[in-house]
Amino acid sequence: MAELEYPNPNQDWGRGPSPTWFEEVANPVVHADPDSVPHDWWNAKYRIPTAERPGPGALASIVEGNVMVDTLFEVTVTEVPGRPDPAPDSFVSPTLDQARECAPPKMYYSKTSNGWVYLDYGPGTLPPIIPNPEHRPYPSQAIRSRRKDCLASEPVESTWLAGASTTKTHHYHIYERAIDPRTISDIPLDTFRYALDIYVCALCQMYLLTSPVFPGIIPTDVVKAFVTDRLSNPPPGRTPAISVALGWELILRVVEQCLFRGGTAAINTQSSSFLNNVGWNDKVAAVFYHLGFTQYKADNVLRLVPPNVSGTHVTSPGKRKRLLRAWVEISAWLSQHRIQKEFELRGHIANPALCLITESIRPRFQSHIGASPDQMPRNSLGLERIQGVPLLYRTFGMTPTTHSAVLLEFAYQEQLRCGPAFAPDYLDTLTKISGLPGLPDSDALFNFVQIERSKGFWSVEDLHKGTRLLGFGEDGAMRIPFDSDVDENFLINAFQNAWRDADTAYRHDPERRDAHRQDLKDALKMACQFSGNPELVARYEQEIRIRTMDPSRAYSVFGATGDIDDEMLLVVYNMRVADNPSEQSKMQEALSFIAEDRNSERLRKFLETGQDPGDAHVLNTRLEWPRGLHQLGNTCYLNSLLQYFYTIKDLREALASGSFERSAPVPDEEFKRKPIGGRLITERELNRSRKFVAHLHSLFINLAHADSPAILPEVQLAKLALMTSKDEEAEGAAMETTATSTGSADTDSTLVDAAAEVPSAPDLSMLPSTTTAPPAPSYSAPTSPGSILGKRPGDSLEREREDRRSPMEVDGLVSPRRSQSELESGSSQPQFLQPTDDDIEMVDARTLDVAPSTPPRIGIPPPLPPRKRTEPAVGDMMFGKQNDVAECMDNCIFQIEAALQFDPDEGEIQGAERPNIVKRLFYGKKRQRIWPAVEEGKPEPAVSEKEDIFAQLLVNVSDDGFDLYDGLGGFLDDTVEFEGKKAKMEVDLVELPPILQIQLQRVQFDRQTLQPKKNNAYVKFGETLFMDRFMEHANPEKRAKSSAIQADLQHCRDRVVMLASRTSGFSYSEVVYRTGQLLTAAEPELPEADPELLQYLEREHAQIIREVEECRVRAKALKEELEALWENEKSAEYELSSVFIHRGTSPSWGHYFFYSRDLRNNPDSWFKYNDSEVSVVSKDEILADGTESTANPYLLVYARKGADVIDTVHRVLPRETPL
């Protein structure tokens, strides 16, 4: 596809004649409303219709098509049949006025439906509107009042052609079922209860009202059945048209005899006259039934008794009125039948003569609404017959048959004025119309499209081309689709990378480089405007300025990037000035530059007064709902984790019972007796953990009592959660504490000053009712290409952590199989999953045939050398070096366990130790067995067995029909590498914890790109999970059968993946097929393309297709068999309680949020925690098939049924007594 040639916005279109597409067009010009399209038409606020911008409208030709689905006729009753002479004394004949009331003004007859339509039109004040939230706003009365009628307005000079005359038409907006008919005085039918549609012109006071079809006395289907029967069975010697006329004429004579001549005699249905004209069957019977005739049989002859319309009975007037309207309707139907079938009715003598005339209202209606051929000429281009073309024109509210250059301009301009947010769609459609074959003004239209682009408009296709320039799309450099999920910082980074690539590619060709730079600027502009976010568009404008001025140095002073908000920037400013008072001037200079760069009045006021004026933005939420958490920089994942901890009732109560602000000394023997995570900890680490837990408890109290919808976590809490003590020391930000552990080399330090006061539980009476902290941006900014959370690679501590990190981390590389050292040293779990427990036998790795790749971390590591403090680099995280999601959870749990383990109140009860709350809640037991492969000629090796503890189960995400049971089965029954060879590994679960955490390993290694990628595949899971099949005590026969089925199932899935997956752009079957096609189509003919090879490739392709289908069918059957095997094993039942979500298409960036189930109070209710926003959502949102979504679960939490460990909604309202 050719490169986009985007017009230069600075081009002077005023030089010479304007390149208008209306040149040489003879048609007169139509003008849109003088109100201009807003310059920020892309703004998301215009996506919500308003009175000034009510959205898409329609021209008169569309309105005519909607209203005149059936041709409507005006019915005028001219006379009524004469009375008999003499007439019976009690006989009352309908008068002419009564007959005319059956066809009043503004009620028009539809022959097709045998019904009536109310239709009124003209300028005036709109009638009362029925409120309807589904309706778009009505057009602005201020604009409409400028003119009474567009068709009668004074000519306005064309903006395109000097001196051109003006064709006038309306721009209607349609509102269905909007008017209550009871508010319309001239609707005559007492039983008319249908709401009316209204069409409102946005440019003048013109509007029209129309109703649905009001049915006639004889229903439409009865009329159609009668007519069809007469057409199909004409009397001998009669044409079908005469047959129909004879039938209706006889019925009309019968009605007139009853209404106007007092006839009461029964009608013999077997008489020759009746049979010759009408006949007798169920269709005829239905007509007379609806006319009010009754049947009786005498002397074996069926007779029809007319209704009593002339008597004194109380029902007579109603029957007379009903039969009179039927007479009008039958007469009107016959009138049009005689006109339309005049040729076919020649020779037929009409009887009776009709007492009314009918006239089509279409010409008059067209003229009033502006749709007559004189006002809106029709063409004979045949565009309506081209597939898809009518839909193109309907985008502008017009029809292809009314195409003209001037009308298309008017429709485009009006749609743009009324719905500016749809400008890309409109320009895209205009471009497609300009390319239609046979269009006489296509060149002029193409010029007009270019003029619109010069004004800053762009089309959908322009956006696609532009985003491909930035590297998005399947064939783009990043291979990432461009959509609304793309983070704004990621977008800016893509532009910066593309800019640098252009400089490199065209460094020897300045002209092409400058042209490509302009295309990149246009592409970024379109991508930012596509978001509808003025702040992002401002970022675009700032980025363009950065091409000549680089403000990155100002942000680097704060260790931040340009996406930091004012609130967080001031937090960091105060923190860093407090740590380094000597650099205050440098900080103020940087803050002053940023204040002017982003035009922030808040930062300016702070620099002037030294006080933060704050932000009054407060979210609205119900008082009894959980509270949200504002972001501290890029910490949406930390917010999810903190909210998750708060939902765990036992953990919350354990923190409430401790006295962590007391820094009670701990004897050396106590440290040795209570290792954490399989190693001894230092007193410094203990003090740090106590401070973390005290801050966490303070946060929990605020979450329980705060009135504000969201609160801002303390900076110290975030520091302690996001950074380990080793990370702090590596960053050079730690301060030495005076307390050390006797007999231990103290190597860990903390960022928090040991002398700093640890917050105690706040005074509840002093809790603020509101918070001034605004919600931070919802997306985590990508600060390095290899990590979702912006972790910097490169130092030794990072490599050490990589050796022990969980392979299921969302933002790390995932090995497809677990290594030997991971299996035996316990490194397949995060550090906090490996504590020493007196009740669990820990097997030394040396007793197995395994040599750990790293020595066990039992002793105390040697001290680290001091490091020189460095300035933070651009892109560093807010709190220096941060860990990923799994490591953050590791660090938090480690500190909670350490603080509780050594707390004097929590640690002992009457001299006996309490069970460790962390172990009790999160840890289970597993038994792992490895069967090494048997080598020929050698004795069978011993089975390696080990009992260990776990806190998380890992599930590798697959792509084909995969659910949670499949994932757990693959983790617990696997093939691994053992002593350099393949070995079978089996894991049995011995004990399950109350809280079962299952992590989905989504980040996988792409062997084609040699880069990590996120697997967004859907993993099916449910509200209930039965773990019986994975337990050690499970039925051994079922286990064996299940293992065999699972192996067969996995084989089928592996074959499907191998043959059908597109790991390199094409599947294996596609490669075979395309190879054959290439050899066949090659010119000149390739020597390799012999017929035998081509036939082989064709057979191979067919065989692959068959095998893939067979494997999928087989896999489905095996899956059903596997589930049926375990369907009655339901003793180990767990309930879904929490779901952690990562949204994003790439492991390099994304956003985290969290769902929690109100398991205790309302199990069908779920809360969505999205930083500061907390909302109630349906369980369908959590359990939905997310195949096409980039928002995927990465951690599932299940609670044992009946354990009562989850209490999501824990709020202490003002009327309650605090616990």
TrEMBL record:
Residue spans of biased composition, Basic and acidic residues class: 792-808
Alphabetical list of InterPro entries matching this protein: Papain-like_cys_pep_sf, Peptidase_C19_UCH, UBP14-like, UCH_repeat_domain, USP, USP_CS
Record field: compositional bias (Low complexity): 732-748, 768-785
Biological processes per GO annotation: proteasome-mediated ubiquitin-dependent protein catabolic process; protein deubiquitination; regulation of proteasomal protein catabolic process
Domain USP residue range list: 627-1201
Class in the EC hierarchy, top level: hydrolase
Membrane-spanning intervals of the chain: none
Domain of life: Eukaryota
Reaction catalyzed: Thiol-dependent hydrolysis of ester, thioester, amide, peptide and isopeptide bonds formed by the C-terminal Gly of ubiquitin (a 76-residue protein attached to proteins as an intracellular targeting signal)
Biased composition (Polar residues): 822-834
Region (Disordered): 729-748, 759-836
Keywords: Coiled coil, Hydrolase, Protease, Thiol protease, Ubl conjugation pathway
Regions annotated as coiled coil: 1094-1125
EC numbers on record: 3.4.19.12
PROSITE patterns, per the entry: USP_1, USP_2, USP_3
MF GO annotations: cysteine-type deubiquitinase activity; proteasome binding
PANTHER family: UBIQUITIN CARBOXYL-TERMINAL HYDROLASE, UBIQUITIN CARBOXYL-TERMINAL HYDROLASE 2-RELATED
Protein known as: ubiquitinyl hydrolase 1
